[in-house]
Design brief:
single chain, mainly alpha, Methane Monooxygenase Hydroxylase, Chain G, domain 1, 2 domains, 12 helices, transmembrane helix
Length: about 350
């Protein structure tokens, strides 16, 4: 409950983003105040503040939402104001009408809120005349344009490094999961240790999802970005690496679940199981190597030779363990194919 009610984030927004928002707000106020005579340019300042987003693509999206919302809201407020005046009940009515019209038009949540806010502000702060309505629309367009220009001109954001960090975390966690599974096959385990093993393996999914989300944010930050350049190639390689190892994440979780379900105290004595454990250690080595090479990490392991060089060949396991061994071998074979394809 404490986390759900928190108004704080885990990480601060970049200080540059805060500075750009402040600069855009001030610039929009000054420019709109110079170009559009009349009341203080509140609409321009708010538009600029909302338009400056972590990526240029998001800025354009927010600019369109903001502009369309203001136009619709101003039109609604003007019609109601001309017909009914500007008493309090008309202001409240305009908010309800604005929300219903936005819902009927299937507007996005951001645009829907903007329609209602604009209608309220026009009736509460001004007079419902055509000239006043046009001026507020112009203010908004000026503010949105200023916000986009500031976001493009002042070091447009590139979110590729955070994507690389998330991908490196996935590589480390995937290799660690394979190592933990190998160690569980080499020594007797308690029920509690098996529970922990399965829980840690399942945590690979949110790590993988975080990497995918970071790569998507990186791609979004490069849209319409004049600084994209070589970053597009890097991001494409990261996406390829994620796509390549996503099945390995699934296989690691599946192997861990198979061990959890089929474990008994004698499994560590099975020669075929010990051989599988050795192959899992080698696979973990090669996963670390693959992520070090493909993400450009400056790690010694990136220069090492792959350890999992050929498929595992074992003797027929004992009848008590053949189901578990067969399941592990199938998944291990798929892991081997993924690593081998990467070397090719």
């Amino acid at each position: 409950m404490r986390e759900s009610l928190s108004f704080r984030t885990k990480r601060r927004a970049p200080l540059l983003q805060v500075a750009k928002s402040a600069i855009a707000t001030v610039a929009a106020w000054l420019v709109a105040g110079w170009l559009v005579q009349g009341p203080p340019p509140i609409f321009a300042a708010i538009a600029a503040l909302l338009v400056v987003q972590p990526s240029i693509n998001q800025s354009l999206t927010r600019a369109v939402e903001r502009s369309v919302g203001v136009v619709v809201g101003v039109v609604i407020a003007s019609l109601l104001g001309i017909a009914l005046g500007s008493p309090t009940w008309v202001i409240l009515l305009s908010a309800g009408v604005a929300l219903v019209i936005a819902w009927a038009l299937r507007m996005s949540p951001g645009a829907t809120n903007q329609v209602a806010i604009s209608a309220i502000l026009v009736l509460a702060l001004g007079t419902a005349t055509p000239n006043y309505a046009v001026d507020r629309v112009l203010e908004t367009l000026i503010g949105a344009l200023v916000g986009i220009v500031v976001n493009v001109a002042l070091v447009p954001p590139v979110l590729v490094p955070p994507a690389r960090e998330k991908l490196e975390v996935l590589g480390r966690e995937l290799a660690a999961a394979l190592e933990r599974l190998a160690e569980a096959l080499e020594a007797p385990q308690t029920p509690a240790s098996l529970e922990e093993l399965l829980l840690e393996a399942r945590l690979l999914r949110p790590v993988r999802d975080a990497a995918a989300a970071a790569i998507a944010d990186g791609a979004d930050s490069l849209s319409l970005n004049p600084r994209s350049g070589r970053h597009r190639t890097d991001l494409r390689a990261m996406q390829d690496l994620l796509d390549r190892f996503t099945p390995v994440v699934t296989q690691a979780i599946g192997m861990t679940r198979a061990v959890y379900d089929g474990y008994d105290a004698t499994i560590a004595e099975e020669p075929s199981v010990r051989a599988i454990a050795e192959q899992l250690h080698r696979a973990a080595h090669d996963v670390r190597r693959a992520f070090a090479v493909d993400t450009g990490a400056d790690l010694p392991i990136a220069t090492e030779e792959p350890a999992l060089t050929r498929p595992l060949q074992i003797r027929t396991p004992s009848p008590a363990h053949w189901v578990l061994v067969g399941s592990l071998l199938m998944d291990l074979h798929r892991v081997h194919e993924t690593l081998r394809d990467g070397e090719g």
